[in-house]
Design brief:
The complex is a heterotrimer, with 2 copies of chain A and 1 copy of chain B.
Chain A lengths: L2 H14 L6 H6 L13 H14 L5 E6 L2 E6 L4 H4 L12 H13 L4 H8 L5 H9 L3 E6 L7 E5 L1 H6 L24 H8 L14 E3 L4 H13 L1
Antiparallel strand pairs in A: 1-2, 3-4
Chain B lengths: L2 H5 L15 E3 L2 E3 L10 H9 L4 H11 L9 H17 L6 H18 L16 H22 L21 E2 L5 H14 L13 H13 L6 E2 L9 H17 L4 E4 L6 E4 L10 H5 L1
Antiparallel strand pairs in B: 1-2, 4-6, 5-6
Helix pairs in contact in B: 3-6, 4-5, 8-9
Classes of the chains: A alpha+beta, B mainly alpha.
């Protein structure tokens, strides 16, 4: 098998699979059943992946390594066009959900009580359920204290969803000594786009539209909505 | 992408040439926020519900006044916090217990701040009644930022779109089971133990190489043709190889799987598979 | 928009959509929201599609026009490799089969009756058939006794599968009698279903037993992977 064919098979496999493929999974495509005599080595596979990655430079898709393997994805710069394929916008997540998720991601394994302790409020069961249904969070075990509370951690799917290879790739946790750049405006515009049932004040959302209060926060909001 | 379009509800959108107001309340634009943060009750309700708890509200109050988190003027913050609590009560919002606990904590810190510092206690963080509150605010603030950071990561379906191509016509293949040699050997050990073969005479084991050579020879010879005896040997294998082949031939002859034919003395020796050699009913039929 | 970018957007859109896209549907991606001033004409779109089609010649996928539009599909010639993404693992072999295989390996040439004699039970035709289909066992000839029973022996494929150069590489019966009885396969399963990711926060040692961490299991798993 020459390197061109190897590359083509890898390209086809990654595009045919509906999930990322690891180097091991790719290697398995070449083993046994004697289609060809010598299966490619891991090094050859990695070389082919690197070559594909490079060839993508001039194309509309890119080859990205995430936690569970390699996947092709649309280049982020093309998202404005591609997102028009779907009428529905991607869901926005409530602050309560994101804060809970962040605590689980950065502090795992962590119990619900510990999350509540840091956030200063109760965590709704709905949030935990949503995170588990999305397969971003799972129960790793139980703390051996009375009540045996569940210990939560994140999954490979969580990493894949946010295009991360490992937990170490998460943004660094800030040390807080001053509040200069706290994005306060989050309070103000979150409620209207909040899809979570725990904040269902939908009756009110057409009454009030609060705008960012300061210049600072205004800039932050622009940045935030550019992502949307 | 235009940020105004995202934030403003289509129907209530102001004329595009106007400066965007800070707030729209019942369609009415507010271009300046009241200094005492007076907001009509409906608006306030939404406003308050967007806080993620007492820590979040406190952080908001501190930030709003450009105060230092490490040096919170407790009296002032407490006053404002209580103002919000009263507003919530007035609006009959469901006032979660956590807010009241925080109010009590603030009141306690305030009263301790007012007490004269006992002599001998040095100034420092340990002695500051605000320390625990500051620690909690800092801790919460870290994860509040982390949440924003996580939210800003590229997300599948929002910033990242996975791609796929139509798969070719394929049948689902069934993989043959994997077996380790270890398993095969354990199976043999079992069956031999069961048959008490280790002590039994007819498992005087031949070298496996002989058994293998027997198979190979059977693969070469047949009943229809004579095979010259000497072709069974490969000289390159050396003495040991020749011995193995000879043992294999002898074993095959003993088992009546092969016969040797020599027409005359010193004539070439041939081997062939015997045709219907007369034998008594062998054991095999007893068990079949 | 230059023709390269147009091609890239079309490529990305066709790969991101889960159904074929018509020229009209592709054109719709460029209208509205005024991302760019002049949307491409139908002709330009068709030219881009033709260019993409041509670029695929050396790649693992091809651009096909079907009734409802254009779609990328994996080249049929790559099906042998790609189809392995969906293969199923067959159930494990029975003890009877393994014993039969072992006896054929050690006592070849051997008849079915002789196997039955040693095992003490009948050997099902299925077992012999499975071993022959797997190409591990073949008929070497027939014993010239009434009924002319087949004589079985192992094949080169058998040796290859178990990484043996010759039958002489098999352990002697004496060595077998001292084999320990740990079923290797169990380890493999265990490591497969081990639910923990690699990133176990060892810092939190007070949490007690999320998953088996005894020395035993660790050693077994290592051994298993060495076998596998």
């Amino acid at each position: 098998m020459n390197s061109q064919q190897l590359k083509n098979i890898i390209e086809a496999a990654l595009l045919a699979a509906d999930h990322p493929l690891s180097v091991d999974q790719l290697a398995a495509l070449f083993i046994a059943q004697s289609i060809e005599d010598e299966p490619p080595t891991r090094d050859e596979l990695r070389q082919a992946l690197a070559a594909l990655q490079q060839e993508c430079e001039s194309r509309g898709i890119e080859l990205k390594e995430v936690s569970s393997g390699y996947r092709f994805q649309v280049k982020q710069a093309l998202a404005p066009w591609i997102s028009r394929l779907w009428e529905e916008r991607a869901p926005r997540y409530s602050r309560a959900l994101l804060e809970t998720l962040a605590l689980i991601a950065y502090r795992q394994p962590i119990t619900r009580a510990e999350i509540e302790d840091i956030r200063g409020v109760a965590v709704s069961s709905n949030i935990i359920k949503t995170l588990q249904e999305r397969e971003w969070v799972r129960v790793l075990g139980h703390r051996e204290v009375p009540g045996r509370p569940a210990l939560y951690g994140t999954t490979r799917e969580f990493l894949d969803f946010f295009s991360l290879k490992a937990l170490g790739d998460l943004p660094t946790l800030a040390e807080i000594s001053s509040l200069d750049d706290i994005p306060t405006q989050m309070h103000l515009n979150q409620s209207e786009i909040n899809p979570m049932p725990d904040n269902n004040n939908s009756g009110n959302t057409n009454i009030v539209q609060l705008y960012p209060v300061t210049n600072d926060t205004g800039a932050d909001t622009n940045e935030a909505s550019a992502h949307g | 992408m235009n940020s105004t379009a995202n934030v403003v509800n289509e129907e209530s959108a102001p004329p595009q040439d106007a400066i965007p107001p800070f707030a729209l309340v019942r369609g009415e634009a507010f271009n300046t926020l009241p200094r005492d943060l007076y907001i009509p009750p409906d608006a306030l309700e939404v406003f308050l519900e967007t806080f993620e708890g007492p820590l979040d509200l406190l952080l908001y109050l501190i930030k709003r006044q450009n105060l230092e988190i490490l040096d919170i003027p407790v009296a002032e913050i407490t006053r404002q916090y209580m103002l919000y609590i009263d507003l919530m009560k007035g609006l009959q919002l469901e006032l979660v217990a956590e807010y009241l606990v925080m109010a009590a904590m603030l009141a306690e810190i305030k009263s301790r701040m007012l007490l004269p510092r006992p002599p001998g206690v040095a100034e420092g963080e340990e002695g500051d009644p605000r320390a625990e509150l500051i620690r909690r605010l800092q801790e919460y603030e870290r994860y509040k930022r982390a949440a924003t950071d996580v939210e800003a990561l590229p997300q599948l379906g929002r910033d990242i779109f996975t791609v796929s191509a139509e798969r070719p016509d394929t049948q689902v293949m069934r993989l043959a089971p994997q077996v380790s040699l270890h398993e095969v050997l354990l199976a043999l050990k079992d069956v031999l133990t069961r048959a008490e073969m280790f002590s039994h005479h007819h498992v005087q084991r031949e070298a496996l190489s002989v058994r293998e050579r027997m198979s190979n020879i059977l693969g070469v010879v047949n009943a229809d043709n004579f095979t010259e005896f000497t072709t069974l040997f490969t000289v390159e294998e050396g003495r040991q190889g020749v011995v193995v082949t000879l043992l294999a031939v002898l074993e095959l002859i003993k088992e009546s799987l092969l016969e040797l034919i020599q027409a005359d003395a010193f004539a070439p020796i041939y081997v062939k598979v015997p045709r219907q050699s007369i034998q008594g009913v062998s054991d095999e039929f007893a068990t079949t």
